[in-house]
Design brief:
Layout (H helix, E strand, L loop, with lengths): L2 H9 L6 E8 L5 E8 L2 E9 L6 H10 L1 E9 L2 E7 L16 E6 L4 H7 L4 E6 L1 H17 L4 H7 L10 E2 L10 E5 L12 E6 L15 H18 L8 E6 L8 E6 L13 E3 H10 L13 E6 L3 H11 L9
Length: 330
């Protein structure tokens, strides 16, 4: 299928979304998750307010084009309003030149997607090496076998998002040390201070940072250097010390990858304590470990937060807390 045709088909899905209920909305009102249907299939639509464009033609037109302006209050020289931005059209007059929303679409979505995007409480848990080995590792195996990594393999093997790749080692050339770098799908590709990239490794035997060993230290340092060099070369307005590199634990998907973000990116829950673990910290931890080259991150306890509706909580840590046997979902 041609790229233009594929994009047209994707764009045609959003207007067909039939709203059913709100799953969650952040406290700042910038992001909302909706559940509904597209052609009788369950769908999850996430809308997020995009950053303000800094283009002069947009900013010059914005005040005069504000619509539905409502004053919420005023005090001396200060006033507060709600309003909607007016459209600025392309030269052909067909589409808005600047988008008001950033939109993610998951269709068909699963019950796990719905739970992930729904508002829920959090728990802070300790994953010991024993819990990892006996409970969490089998849980990861089940997740990998459900086919949720197909989109990652499409990227690695060059079937999808080829034009988005910023840097990669030639596929298969470097064996276990191959990797590629591309933008995270949540980044708008324009706002530099919101920069968010992913470095995805080619090899498939590393599921998470738990699989990293002392023997991986030179490779991790090499990947760190190449990733930073490629990012700075692609976005010259960024300097090396404006980048943060980290792993998620637990990651959304169990295939080893590193997040690269601008230091000014607003720290959401995905960068909070118990979720983001700095690459440099992992390297330092490995270097300080005693033992041979097979000693690794699976030998230490890790503490992190889990959602109360997540399978990690309901299937593993809640039963452990209540003294019941925990097992991965079948």
């Amino acid at each position: 299928m041609a790229a233009d045709e594929s994009k047209s088909q994707a764009e045609a899905l959003v207007p067909k979304f039939q709203f059913e209920r709100v799953l969650n909305q952040d406290e700042g009102g910038r992001r909302i998750a909706l559940y509904g249907q597209i052609d009788a299939q369950p769908a999850l639509l996430v809308l997020e307010r995009a950053p303000f464009p800094d283009a002069p033609e947009y900013l010059s037109a914005l005040p005069a084009n504000l619509r539905s302006l409502t004053n919420l209050g005023n005090n001396d020289i200060y006033s507060w309003f709600l309003g909607s931005g007016g459209p600025v059209f392309n030269e052909d007059g067909n589409k808005d030149k600047f988008a008001d929303f950033k939109i993610d679409l998951i269709c068909p979505c699963t019950e796990k997607h719905i739970r992930k995007h729904s508002k829920q409480g959090s728990r802070y848990v300790t994953e010991t090496p024993e819990i990892y080995r006996e409970k969490v590792r089998p849980f990861m195996q089940v997740g990998r076998e459900e086919g949720r990594l197909n989109w990652v393999y499409n990227i690695i093997e060059g079937r999808k998002e080829v034009e988005d790749v910023i840097y990669r080692t030639p596929l298969g050339r470097d064996g276990d040390e191959g990797f590629l770098l591309l933008p995270n799908l949540h980044w708008d590709r324009k706002t530099i201070e919101s920069l968010h990239l992913l470095a995805i490794v080619e090899r498939r035997d590393l599921w998470s940072l738990r699989d990293l060993k002392k023997r991986h230290i030179p490779w991790l340092k090499h990947m760190r250097a190449k990733t930073i060099d490629a990012t700075v070369a692609t976005y010259p307005q960024i300097e090396e010390d404006q980048l943060k590199l980290f792993f998620h634990y637990h990651p959304t998907y169990y295939h080893l990858h590193i997040h690269i973000v601008h230091a000014n990116l607003e720290a959401t829950s995905t960068q909070s304590v118990g979720k983001a673990i700095a690459l440099d910290s992992v390297i330092d931890q490995l270097e300080r470990m005693t033992g041979d080259d097979e000693t690794g991150m699976d030998t230490i306890p890790l503490c992190y937060t889990v959602g109360e509706q997540s399978d990690l909580w309901t299937e593993i840590f809640e039963p452990l807390k209540n003294g019941h046997k925990a097992s991965p979902q079948q």
